[in-house]
Amino acid sequence: MKNADLMTVQFNPNLVYQHRIKSWRFGAVSWYAGGGISGGIMMQLNRTDVRMVVDGEKGPWVPGALDLGDKNTIFGKVGVNAVGGAELYFTRVPLVLDLDFRPGFGTAWRKVDVGGESCMINVNFFDWVLAASLRYRF
Fold first, then answer.
1. C-alpha to C-alpha distances, 56 to 20, 53, 124, 125, nearest whole angstrom
2. Which of 112, 123, 106 is nearest to 68 (CA)?
3. Residue 49 in contact with residue 61, Cβ under 8 Å?
4. CA 10 to CA 104: how far, in whole Å?
């Protein structure tokens, strides 16, 4: 699958180990690493380019060939992810500056009827995000 516009809504608990590297008068720096699982739904927002595989042979890419029903077709989704990053904690102001990397792998599925026969569509994907945040600390 390529050129797919997908949206997910999911629950994603993670376990994270955090270690303080250094403390100063104005704050501290820590690193953290961990991972977790996810579960939820995924929606296809447009028609998608696909490559059909029949008896192990890959065919050509077919633009816009996959239309799994109406727009906003819903799939079930599960996945695993990792997270790692660094955090700067300020003591004089209630702020935390954070930079993290989150790679993940997921799979989504949906049962569809094709020519009167029921079949299962599976979509596997790898995604990642590099994020920076500035958080207020209570």
1. 50, 6, 17, 19
2. 112
3. yes
4. 13
